[in-house]
Automatic annotation (TrEMBL), chain A:
Protein name: Carbohydrate ABC transporter permease
PANTHER family (UniProt xref): ABC TRANSPORTER PERMEASE PROTEIN, GLUCOSE IMPORT SYSTEM PERMEASE PROTEIN GLCU
Membrane topology listed for this record: Multi-pass membrane protein
Transmembrane segments: 21-41, 84-108, 120-144, 171-194, 215-237, 276-297
Cellular localization per UniProt: Cell membrane; Membrane
Occurrences of domain ABC transmembrane type-1 (ranges): 85-297
Family classification: Belongs to the binding-protein-dependent transport system permease family.
GO BP terms in the entry: transmembrane transport
Organism: Haloarcula rubra
Alphabetically ordered keywords of this record: Membrane, Transmembrane, Transmembrane helix, Transport
One Pfam family linked to the record: BPD_transp_1
One cellular component term from this protein's GO annotations in UniProt: plasma membrane
UniProt superkingdom: Archaea
UniProtKB/TrEMBL annotation, chain B:
Phylogenetic classification of the source organism: Archaea, Methanobacteriati, Methanobacteriota, Stenosarchaea group, Halobacteria
Protein's recorded name: ABC-type D-xylose/L-arabinose transporter
Subunit annotation: The complex is composed of two ATP-binding proteins (XacJ and XacK), two transmembrane proteins (XacH and XacI) and a solute-binding protein (XacG).
Key words, A-Z: ATP-binding, Cell membrane, Membrane, Nucleotide-binding, Translocase, Transport
Listed InterPro entries: AAA+_ATPase, ABC_transporter-like_ATP-bd, ABC_transporter-like_CS, ABC_transpr_MalK-like, ABC_transpr_MalK/UgpC-like, Mo/tungstate-bd_C_term_dom, NA-bd_OB-fold, OB_MalK-like
Catalytic activity annotation: D-xylose(out) + ATP + H2O = D-xylose(in) + ADP + phosphate + H(+); L-arabinose(out) + ATP + H2O = L-arabinose(in) + ADP + phosphate + H(+)
Function: Part of the ABC transporter complex XacGHIJK involved in the uptake of xylose and arabinose. Responsible for energy coupling to the transport system.
GO biological process: carbohydrate transport
Entry membrane topology: Peripheral membrane protein
A Pfam family hit: OB_MalK
Coiled coil regions in record: none
Coarse class of the protein's main subcellular location: membrane
Family per similarity comment: Belongs to the ABC transporter superfamily. Carbohydrate uptake transporter-1 (CUT1) (TC 3.A.1.1) family.
Record-level GO cellular component terms: ATP-binding cassette (ABC) transporter complex, substrate-binding subunit-containing
Length: 310, 382
């Protein structure tokens, strides 16, 4: 009797002890990592809500208190950025849709349709991914300014349109550039997805009498919805955050057609120094569109990653 | 309606430097309304042949004709065919109804009302009327199979192609679908080419069977003809379950001699064998008779030991061995009726009736003599 109780006591104790140590270790690690990743965000948001004086006096992580709290920074940053927001979205949304759609079409043509010389084209697409942006900046600028001045050609048309102004035509070359440079990576992403689809689907549609383009529109396009989510998020973030092409093709941060990434470095800077409150507000605001996209496409994104295999 | 003709069809796949001949000089004529089963082990080229008929593979050499039209350069989309895939290949994002109407929308000018009418009609024929609004993911394997068949039937094509359509079903459902598919085909009277590796499906469903091996056509004929008059060793072994017994040995005079036995040939057989040296004698398990005591044909009776008995209820499968050194492999398999008891390790008298044996040339595999049939040859072409 006594033997059995002492036995079971030892068992439980040792079990609990081991269990706790592992658990505690895990939680400590998780909390450390959460802190590590969230601290900069916390600092940013807190600084955005502080007056200049409070920024100087308090530690960055601490929340603003009493006199130190202000909405002014956010208001000012929003005023500064509102035009740029429109410009960025006006350029990035069509550019994203364009590159994703063309990428998907190219991947379909390279994966599910058989024709001669396919491999050569695939290699060209692969090269496109590894082409360094810096190498094409000068030719690109010369092309859009001297050889094919699309912006100035479109300006009169843009003037007559509602909502947009004539200067918005300067965003069109940037949009097309992004579409062109986005196609290779989108193609490769879609390609791996299409390779994982059973080829009998396309064959069945062929036997049902559907043409190559009809098979894409009625079968492949609807099936690749989850992959569209993934590539759309990725591509939108890339284009929206891109700086180098924007900097080259748009004359500067003081022009009305400047995109968010061009204006951001200039917001809050003045001869008297940098206003960190304003700068953090602007950075926080600039990040919102990408956050919205992630939340909006979260379900598709998860599905796409699960089924994508790419 | 027209006949489908394969004329010396060859398919060569190029794999870098190597050339792989998947289908070699296959000629077969499939008559209008006929149910032809292409059967063979995996990798024998049967699926490739089917895919060439569908236009999913190009034809390296030879010709495929539907009636008088050469199909070789006709696009898959323009061939009047329907195909059922092993994986069903239903469009996952479309409802069963839309899956079935897709082909009609793409290949005909029918109005939406007419299409709906035809889909509804075929659906009720297939017993899937109440499943039409479900997507493939919400259907069971058997239901998906029916939708896939319905999708083919609704097209009302010249030719049905079926690529192992039943192999993803469980055994019971497969047997049911086998009968149903056969009835459907009779009812619709559409020329059908059916690919399978399952010889039971081939035997039970077909009007004629075409056996393929290594890309070559081995024999084409009605099921019973293939069963009783195989033209070579491969067909003899492939058709029938359990498969035919083979004893390999030599012809000495007018007798067949192995290490264990001497088996005298009758005049008819000896004439057929002529002067072939190395021969293989084949006999179907159901023709191997097990007797308790010697009968009236002592020359063709042998003492053997039953090593394993597999009772199936209606019949027993008995594995038999010739006396002497045990080789570990049984020498003959016999099927006896279920009520006849044979004990394991029991010594029995085995009768190999001379009129039931097949003789093959060992070197070429060609049949030299097929079993004699009391049947009228016409009866084979049921």
């Amino acid at each position: 009797m006594s033997q059995s109780t002492s036995d079971s006591g030892i068992d439980v104790a040792s079990f609990v002890e081991e269990f706790n140590l592992a658990r505690i270790g895990q939680y400590v690690l998780v909390i450390l990592f959460i802190g590590f990743f969230l601290a900069p965000l916390e600092t940013g948001i807190m600084t955005a809500l502080k007056t200049n004086e409070a920024v100087a006096r308090t530690i960055p992580l601490a929340p603003p208190t009493g006199e130190g709290f202000t909405w002014g920074n956010l208001q000012f940053a929003l005023e500064q950025l509102s035009g740029a927001f429109f410009n960025s979205l006006f350029m990035a949304i069509p550019a994203t849709i364009g590159s994703v759609l063309f990428g998907s079409m190219a991947a379909y043509g390279l994966t599910m349709v058989r024709w001669r010389g396919q491999m050569l084209f695939l290699i060209l697409f692969l090269i496109g991914i590894f082409l360094p942006y810096q190498a094409v900046l000068v030719p690109l600028a010369r092309f859009w300014n001297n050889i094919f001045p699309l912006a100035s050609m479109l300006a009169p048309t843009f003037e007559t349109l509602p909502v947009v102004q004539d200067f918005h035509s300067n965003l069109v070359p940037l949009m097309i550039t992004h579409i062109a440079y986005g196609i290779p990576i989108c193609t490769i992403l879609f390609r791996s997805y299409y390779q994982s689809l059973p080829s009998s689907l396309v064959e069945a549609a062929k036997i049902d009498g559907a043409s190559i383009s009809k098979i894409y529109r009625r079968i492949v396009l609807p099936i690749s919805k989850p992959m569209f989510g993934v590539v759309f998020i990725y591509q939108f973030t890339q284009i929206y955050n891109e700086f180098l092409f924007a900097f080259t093709l748009i004359t500067g941060s003081d022009t009305p057609e400047a995109v968010v990434t061009l204006i951001l470095p200039a917001v809050g800077a003045s001869t008297s120094g940098i206003d960190f409150g304003i700068r953090m507000s602007a950075a926080f605001l600039a990040a919102i569109p990408t956050l919205i996209i992630y939340v909006a496409f979260a379900e598709q994104f998860a599905k796409g990653l699960r089924t994508g295999g790419g | 309606m027209a006949d489908l003709t394969l004329d010396a069809v060859t398919k060569v796949f190029e794999d870098g430097e190597d050339e792989i001949v998947a289908v070699d000089d296959v000629s077969v004529e499939i008559r209008d309304g006929e149910f032809l089963v292409l059967v063979g082990p995996s990798g024998c080229g049967k699926s490739t042949t089917l895919r060439m008929i569908a236009g999913l593979e190009t034809i390296t050499d030879g010709e495929i004709r539907l009636g008088d039209d050469v199909l070789n350069d006709v696009r898959t989309q323009d061939r009047d065919i329907a195909m059922v895939f092993q994986s069903y290949a239903l469009y996952p994002h479309l409802s069963a109804r839309r899956n079935m109407s897709f082909g009609l929308e793409e290949s005909t000018d029918l109005s939406q009302t007419d299409i709906d009418e035809r889909v509804t009609e075929v659906a009720s024929m297939m017993g899937i009327s109440d499943l039409l609004d479900r997507k493939p993911g919400q259907l069971s394997g058997g239901q998906q199979q029916r939708v896939a068949l319905g999708r083919a039937i609704v097209r009302d094509p010249e030719v049905f192609l079926m690529d192992e359509p039943l192999s993803n079903l469980d055994a019971k459902l497969r047997a049911e679908m086998r009968t149903e598919l056969q009835q459907l085909q009779h009812q619709l009277d559409v020329t059908t080419v059916y690919v399978t590796h399952d010889q039971t499906e081939a035997m039970t469903m077909s009007d004629r069977i075409a056996v393929m091996n290594d890309g070559r056509l081995q024999q084409v004929g009605p099921p019973l003809e293939l069963y009783h008059e195989p033209t070579n060793l491969f067909v003899a072994e492939f058709i029938g379950e359990p498969s035919m017994n083979f004893l390999s040995g030599r012809r000495e005079g007018s007798s067949f001699v192995t290490d264990r036995i001497e088996y005298p040939f009758s005049e008819t057989v000896a004439d057929a064998v002529e002067d072939a040296e190395d021969v293989i004698v084949g006999i179907r398990p159901e023709d191997v008779a097990i007797r308790d005591e010697a009968g009236d044909d002592p020359a063709h009776e042998f003492e053997m030991t039953a090593t394993v008995v597999e009772p199936m209820g209606n019949e027993n499968v008995v594995h038999l061995e010739f006396p002497g050194e045990t080789t570990g492999t049984e020498d003959l398999v016999a099927i006896t009726e279920g009520m006849r008891e044979v004990g394991e390790n029991e010594s029995v008298t085995v009768h190999l009736p001379e009129e039931t044996i097949h003789v093959f040339d060992t070197a070429t595999g060609e049949a030299l003599h097929a079993r004699q049939l009391e049947l009228d040859p016409q009866a084979l072409r049921l």
